[in-house]
Amino acid sequence: MSTPSQWQYFSKEELTCHCGKCGRMDMDDAFMGKIIMMRRELGFPFIVTSGFRCPEYNGKPPFTTGEAGPHTTGHAMDILVSHEGALRVIESALHHGMTGIGVKQHGPGETRYLHLDDLEAPNYPRPNLWSYP
């Protein structure tokens, strides 16, 4: 795993688990490489609402994947984005090999986000697109 100083555009704080205990930030290098290429090409900030999650934190509400999932392996990121920006991120995500895209685009703009991950089958149905309630 690399250090955030090698991950242009992103700070350690925004990628670190938000449980308040573990301090882990085990993001996958290849996943971060894809995210950095997307950010560079799109030319606007990716405001991270959730990066790495430890299994304990991922197993608590409001998360629905239990103690395992793409955030617990450093292969996922949720970013605050809406409207045209969300569409542009989705297009870029498909181009850069993201295989999981979760969409929450209803409600106030500050609550709209996209989940991006690059998991592979057979453990997860991929490619996959879903919406959040």
Write the layout of secondary structure elements.
Elements (H helix, E strand, L loop, with lengths): L11 H4 L13 H14 L4 E4 L4 H4 L17 E5 L2 H13 L4 E5 L8 E5 L10 E4 L2
Question: Would you write up a description of this structure?
Answer:
With 133 residues, the protein is α+β, with helices and mostly antiparallel strands. The chain has a single domain, classed as Muramoyl-pentapeptide Carboxypeptidase, domain 2, CATH 3.30.1380.10. Helices cover 26% and strands 17% of the residues. The chain is built from 4 helices and 5 strands. The protein has helices at residues 12-15, 29-42, 55-58, 83-95, and strands at residues 47-50, 76-80, 100-104, 113-117, 128-131. The protein has a 5-stranded mixed β-sheet with strand order 1-2-4-3-5, with helices on one face. The mean pLDDT is 91.
In short, what is this structure?
The chain has 133 residues and is of the alpha+beta class.
Helix content: 25-40%
Quick one: CATH class?
Answer: Alpha Beta
Low-pLDDT stretches: none
Number of strands: 5
Radius of gyration: 14 Å
List the main descriptive attributes of the protein structure presented here:
Muramoyl-pentapeptide Carboxypeptidase, domain 2, alpha+beta
